[in-house]
Write a structure and sequence with these properties.
8 strands, alpha+beta, eight-stranded antiparallel β-sheet, 3 helices, Alpha-D-Glucose-1,6-Bisphosphate, Chain A, domain 4, 156 residues, single chain
Length: 156
């Protein structure tokens, strides 16, 4: 399966991937800490924190630590939740605490063959910040992470 990243509109980044698992399983993999720990992030890093308070207004925080001890942590708050269908949340890179958060809508759509079309639509504070993230290697990281998720879904 192919993970596709596009920039269809001003300040927007859309990531799409179809997974060979039903929406309920993909939802569980994305919202239950024990599952997130198995697929989140880059394989060369250690996932050190996965906190999820899955309720409107609840916080989430996911992070990894590099071999040199550098922490890469993202966090935010859930703005709207439609179980097994949609998550709306904010996302902040904690190493840039003064940055305006990114707003993300994640949808879990059933496909005719029993899979899930996962779409992440994020709206960034500016095109410049979005493009800086992409230039810093975000695309390769997202692709690896989604590949890891696909592998984990097979074990659930």
């Amino acid at each position: 399966m192919v993970t596709l990243l596009t920039t269809p509109a001003d300040r927007e980044l859309v990531v799409t991937r179809t997974f060979d698992a039903p929406p309920a399983r993909v939802w569980e993999a994305w919202t239950v800490p024990e599952h997130v720990r198995e697929w989140y992030g880059m394989s060369g890093l250690t996932t050190t924190v996965v906190d999820i308070d899955l309720r409107v207004g609840g916080a989430w925080r996911w992070g990894q630590t590099a071999p040199d001890g550098q922490e890469i942590v993202f966090s935010g708050a859930y703005e709207d939740i439609v179980p097994v269908e949609r998550l709306d949340y904010t996302e902040t890179f904690e190493q840039m605490p003064d940055a305006e958060p990114v707003h993300v809508t994640l949808t879990f759509d059933a496909t005719p063959d029993g899979g899930t079309a996962l779409t992440s639509t994020s709206v960034w504070p500016s095109n410049e910040i979005r493009d800086q993230a992409l230039d810093a290697g975000m695309e390769a990281g997202v692709r690896e992470q989604y590949d890891r998720l696909a592998e984990h879904l097979k074990t659930m």
